Amino acid sequence: MATVKKIPTRLCIGCQEQHLKKELIRIVKSPEGEFFVDLTGKKSGRGAYICRNRECFDKAVKEHRFAKSFKCPIDKTIFDELEKQLFE
User: Fold this and answer.
1) What's the pLDDT at 17?
2) Which range of residues forms the domain containing residue 30?
């Protein structure tokens, strides 16, 4: 009997929709408190997933969803740096 392999899905914090994990980008807060984009999806730290479009990123920033996901306040300079890493 063949087993069906489960395909991992994650919730985008911008649009609040389920997507395949490999379609999303992971934002990580490292144990040292640094924020960065994790393209491999394997770095240690608390992660949040977001779609690869600016609308989802802007909506997540506007509605403070990064702060909720990472359970801490986030400075605007961190958003500026993440935006550079994602869209430039």
Assistant:
1) 96
2) 9-87
Q: Pick the closest to residue 22 from 35, 33, 12, 9 (CA basis).
A: 9
**Backbone torsions φ then ψ of 70, nearest 5 degrees:** -90, -5
Confirm whether 2 is domain-assigned. Answer: no
The single-letter code of the amino acid at 84 is K
Site of tokens 């306040």 = 73
The model's pTM: 0.89
Q: Is residue 4 part of a domain?
A: no
Decide if 29 contacts 9 (C-beta within 8 A). Answer: no
Dihedral over Cα of 86, 15, 26, 19: its sign: negative
